[in-house]
Amino acid sequence: MLHAYTTWPYSYTDPEAAQAVFTSGTPITLVPLDATNAFQLSWDWLNSFGAVARTKEARFCHDLLALIKNNSASTSMYSLWDPLTAAILADPSLIVEQVTLNLTVALTGDQVGRTVIDDVEGKPVQVVLEADPNFFDVFVSKLNQRPHFPYHD
To answer: The whole model's pTM is what?
Structure first.
């Protein structure tokens, strides 16, 4: 469900900087927490990821996610917020559904720091509503690819 407002952690710590990004003209794709809820960190997936992690980048991400999982309460759910967002950046075809909304960052009042829908002052932002369930495979595949640096031997 998409609300009339959404949270964006950086806008709480520096709402003016977040608003500057929104008004900069830079294309923005927002992956809200609601879109990440379908991608929970489970031991089954983490173990299968560990079995196929071939590069140091993949092993690092696996170890970091295992550390997070080990340090979270056994009953808590941990969504893959940042990994999903990074995967969408690397492969936008993972976006199944998105909408364009005019958004701004509230700078005053009880909504300060929130990203809000504003059809008058807001700027167009692509908001991801749903991502491809194949995200897990794409994430591991991208991490297992050796980076190519054209200007480096």
So the answer is: 0.77
Which are the contacts of 34, defined by CB distance < 8 A and separation ≥ 6? 1, 2, 6, 129
Closest CA to 11 of 126, 129, 112: 112
For residue 12, what pLDDT is reported?
Answer: 62
Q: pLDDT digit string (tens) for 25-44?
A: 999 999 988 888 889 888 89
| Tokens standing for residue 89 | 């950046």
Contacts for 150 with CB less than 8 Å, ≥ 6 apart: none
Rounded to whole angstroms, the Cα distance separating 6 from 33 reads: 9
Please report the DSSP string for 64-127 in residue order: HHHHHHHHS-TT---B-HHHHHHHHHH-GGGEEEEEEEEEEE--SGGGTT-EEE-TTT-EEEEE
CA distance 131 to 32: 11
**Measured distance CA(42)–CA(110) in Å, rounded:** 36
